[in-house]
Design brief:
Elements (H helix, E strand, L loop, with lengths): L1 H11 L31 H7 L21 H40 L15
């Protein structure tokens, strides 16, 4: 009984415990901006001597030689075929969504007990 009362009192009077900051944990470092692009301790002349200067905007080193020339006609036919496939797939998706919605309406009508749910097309007699 005594423990229960002490626990109830202890829970209501809980203090937040914060660690005491020590001076050893927090150190302020001084920021010294660089005056040159090289890291400190490396002279500029030694870096220039080891590697040649790159040519500006020269992308020829990334080009790969082709075994055969580029076939523009084949690429355009492939693009047209991909576009036609995408259009057909979109049309099928729209048709499917509309038919599912129509079936849902018909099913809801039948489940409500109505008898005039299905559309009946009558051919006129001549």
């Amino acid at each position: 009984m005594l423990n229960k009362e002490r626990d109830a009192i202890g829970l209501t009077a809980v203090k937040t415990q914060r660690p005491i900051p020590s001076d050893d944990e927090h150190v302020v470092l001084k920021f010294r901006p660089r005056t040159s692009a090289e890291p400190p301790g490396h002279p500029r002349e030694s870096i220039r001597a080891t590697r040649p200067a790159p040519a500006a905007n020269d992308l020829s080193r990334y080009e790969k030689p082709r075994e055969e020339p580029d076939d523009f006609r084949q690429r355009m036919l492939a693009n047209v075929a991909a576009f036609a496939f995408t259009v057909a797939l979109t049309a099928i998706g729209i048709w499917l969504a509309m038919s599912i919605a129509d079936l849902r309406k018909t099913q809801d009508c039948v489940l409500m007990g109505r008898r005039d749910c299905a559309k009946i097309s009558v051919m006129p007699r001549t």
